[in-house]
Specification:
- This protein is mainly alpha-helical.
- It has one domain.
- Helix content is 60%, strand content 0%.
- The longest helix is centred in the first third of the chain and has 32 residues.
- The relative contact order is 0.08.
């Protein structure tokens, strides 16, 4: 604590820096809603295209015999796979943007990393 600063301003500044900006909350919420919607529609499109073109033969064990939609299990499995792939793509984009535009790894008060090359080996 410095000569002209008070403890109150230091704590409020620290709390303000820990809060997430509301825009990023909105982006996260939009991705939270958008990812399952993309997965559901993607699975419907892929399963219907597969039934028309016959790209992949669906095993009989995955067919649902209890209702009107016999490809229900296949649509669920394809939807989960698409959901995971879309999440990985969003995470890679986030990683690239954070590494490109994010804050530096070390602050102004951090000591630079030590360049240690290991012990000297004598022959």
């Amino acid at each position: 604590m410095g000569k002209y600063s008070s403890r109150m301003t230091e704590e409020s500044l620290r709390d303000r820096n820990r809060q997430v900006h509301p825009i990023w909350r909105g982006v996260g919420f939009a991705l939270f809603l958008l990812t399952p919607i993309i997965a559901i529609f993607g699975s419907l499109v892929l399963v219907n295209a597969n039934s028309q073109h016959g790209w992949v033969q669906i095993p009989r064990d995955l067919l649902y015999h209890g209702g009107s939609d016999s490809l229900l299990y296949v649509k669920i499995i394809v939807g989960v796979v698409i959901f995971l792939v879309v999440n990985v793509i969003f995470q890679l984009i986030t990683f690239i943007l954070t590494s490109a535009f994010g804050p530096s790894r070390y602050g102004p008060l951090d000591v630079p990393p030590v360049s240690y090359k290991g012990p000297k080996k004598s022959r």
